[in-house]
Predict the 3D structure of the following.
Amino acid sequence: MGIIILVIYVSSFKIFLKTFVISGWCVAFFIGAGYYYIQSQTTTPAEIENESVPYYDYIPESKGVMFNFGTRCVYTYLDFENSSITVMINPQETESKGYKADFVVNADYNLIAKMVDYFEGINLEIEGETLRYTGGQVVDLLSTNNDSSLRQSIVLSVLSKIKEQGVGVDFFNMIIINSKTNLKMPDCYFWKDKIDKIASNVNFLNN
């Protein structure tokens, strides 16, 4: 009787062991398959590049800015659409020429000095000699010389620096905090991205 019970016990244990091993392999298989599926789903989107989405090149709205320095003024029309800047030195009026001052900047020569020093000086040709001038030196020239050609040379030199080096948001912020103006940072924030390009095409209009 004991032998029969032992045989039954051994047989049952073999069945249990076989079932356990098969179940273990099934569990391992399904876990592995599930892990592989999850990994494939999470990595696939990162590898897909959507080349059909076009790059949007934002172009700021063209604006006119009038700089008033006491009795002297400089008008600049920033034409972002046609990639150019139109400049008038001491204009008597602008609207008759088809331009308007969207923004007015009232400041003293200290602002000019800061604009020049932003580029660590500008090059000016004075009496046939080209020299590098700091902001303070440019102000001294303006204080003793009323020649509009000098002002045109200064404007052209500053714009040349903008074309070569570009400017950041800090350049426009410097203008705003050193003047009385209706120009706000949201108005000119995106100018930095295009102003170097339009500064390569400068047109001066005479009164």
About this structure: The first helix runs from residue 2 to 47.
